[in-house]
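Known limitations

Files may contain more than one protein. Parsers should not assume a single record per file. Below, a two-record file is shown to illustrate correct handling: read the sequence, read the token line, then continue until end of file.
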Amino acid sequence: MTTVGLIGLGAMGSGMAASLRRAGHSVQVFDVRREVAEAFTHAGGTAHETLASLGSACDVIVSVVVNAAQTEAVLFGDGATPGCAASMKPGSVFVMCSTVDPNWSVALEARLEAMGLRYVDAPISGGAAKAASGQMTMMTAGKPEAYALAEPFLNAMAAKVYKLGDSAGAGSKVKIINQLLAGVHIAAAAEAMALGLREGVDAAALYEVITNSAGNSWMFENRMAHVLAADYTPLSAVDIFVKDLGIVLDMARASKFPLPLSSTAHQMFMQASTAGFAKEDDSAVIKIFPGIELPKGKA
């Protein structure tokens, strides 16, 4: 039986692990917060104390960490602690779910192939709720032999698994374009709500009208609800879009392609981050606008 492991039980990873378990798989997990990994196993599964132990036990490993640097660390170690790559069996598959520079993903595939390992470039989208229900989207690229092992687990975690190419990079490119739109839409939603507040429009009424009109977007409907509730608990933090829009701009810069809206949105998130809102929900980008009184939520 093919065994699956998952690294990173954060907002997305915990839901993905639960979806794997719900599909009948015996899930093996690792998280730097040992108590979080142990808590997951109370309903079944196995927690590993080291990445090396997880690597040797699994045929497919799904990595759900924040960025390329953390992915490097879980694979190859951080100098003090070994990663999982050295202990993975030849032919095992590493599924990378982070938002990264596509060129970095291409290089990682080559590096793992040189070690006898397979790779699926598989960024994810949909948020914590869809991850928990197995309804998220995966933008994947990889060789057929990697899919052969990983596909049952991909299908257990996502409602939509898009196969975008037979080598790494294509999945990450599509994810980057998704993040371009997501970041620009959040920034535009915040700007629109801020203008309404500045002009004295009732925030709840504005939200009701826009979400039933042509100007609505999924990001307006979702993120401006956070603003109305005055709840900036970070489901996706401001600094995520500082990072992701930065990757968007780096990719476009390499081919000298202009992205005026992305550049502006990136600066808005940068401003919010340096103003002290880096770890707040990305809807906190609305806090950069002067002269407005934000909703205080329910007392």
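...continuing to the second record:
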Amino acid sequence: MKSILENRPVLAKQVADVAEVAGYLWQKGWAERNGGNITINITDVIDDEIRNMKAISDRVEIGSCLPHLKGCYFFCKGTNKRMRDLARWPMENGSVIRICDDCSSYEIIADKPVAPTSELASHLSMHNYLIGSGSNYKAAVHTHPIDLVAMTHNPAFLKKDVLTKLLWSMIPETRAFCPKGLGIIPYALPSSFELANATVKELADYDVVMWEKHGVCSVGENVMEAFDMVDTLSKSAQIYLTAKSMGFEPEGMSDKLMEELKVAFNLPK
């Protein structure tokens, strides 16, 4: 049986980008065992042949009605699959799913019946919000950056925008490339709708959200953009933690310098 990617170069490129990012997450040590997940909305590159494909799985209930996802298609990392394997064999460690007309269930259509990520509720809730808000964002990446997760174990960093301002102040690129900063979500059970709903709420103000003592979730126009924002925030966290390990509190950029940067680059907030 041929792959759904065969003779579909645009779709194949999007899946290849997911595989590339999966490799980066593993290399950085952010994806222990089967940790983390990636989903991309591929609806805009789906042709009639794919739309007519029969399901290769039973219908699976999502657990919530997501009306903006009717007829949408997603490529998803598989549950209990490793990022290092997704990087090498994406269609064996991920699958294409179709949201059913009831907007509350999905079915797998290709290539193999690989069950999607256990965090699917959070990911699909985010995609439902993005479509409903008119966003052109298509990708969602969840991963476990060591430095950023470590910082959430300090209650002082969990107050609104405290961590955002600290990370912005470490290096100008963070303010420029993560202009909305970092939202903070108090600990919630992984895979729960409590976590999904809290994430969606934060996406109204942020492109990257921190799940306390768990990991980061980022959304972007494509999977590379979503990864880049987390990578940039992680660099700032490393600068801060390196300075602390040298025995001093880093000075950081002043509010005046950050305001100057905001005006120069026409940044939000």
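Parsers that stop after the first record will miss the second one. For reference, the second record is described as follows. The CA atoms of residues 79 and 117 lie 4 Å apart.
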